[in-house]
Amino acid sequence: MLARASVIALCSALLAGPALAMDAQGFSCSGPFGADSSEALLKTTFGADNVVTGEVPGPEGTTMLATTVFPNDPARTLQFGWWDEEKLEGLSYVDLPPGMEGPHGVEIGMTVDEIAAINGQPYTIGGFWWDYGGYAMFESGTLASNDSDCYLSLRFSPADKDFGDIDLGPVSGEVIIPSTDPLLAKLDTRVTMVSISYPGPEGDD
User: Fold this and answer.
1) What is the model's pTM?
2) What gap in Å lies between CA 27 and CA 88, rounded to an integer?
3) Is 55 exposed, middle or buried (0-12, 13-18, 19+ CB in 10 A)?
4) Which of 4-8, 68-72, 94-98 comes out lowest in average pLDDT?
5) Domain parsing of the chain, residue ranges
């Protein structure tokens, strides 16, 4: 866990501007990013005018309640979900913005190979182009060793372009893709979501 000063430094960087700096110790699941966070703490930390709670898009055309910090600045936007949606407390997840490093230095825009280098082991990715596609699964390596206070989730997507005659069948839908598959590099597959999740009440998640 980081010292309290590290969390203060991170929050100061978020407030200062779009360049999100982390100190040498990295991300901390504490303070506004801790399991006991709340909407009230986010308002105190980031300023009430920068915090909005409301319905956001969910999977399969659903909506869900979340608190968004810096909703009008995509370079800094953070989205927080809550286990207790009435009191808006008990952090369920937080989605990090581009340029902000998560645990072990992972961030949006990294390639499949860059994440493999951080993990130190191959891993797998769920097939793309469906509501639950693109999530990484780490059975071994650095990223499989989760802090008991919070858990890392990465989602990948191929580049948004026409791939011509490339056969996309092997990476489409409910399939499991090894990170060593060369097709992932051909599709310029990169991290598009870094999310931190937290155990629910009494350890349920």
Assistant:
1) 0.84
2) 23
3) exposed
4) 4-8
5) 4-95, 107-203
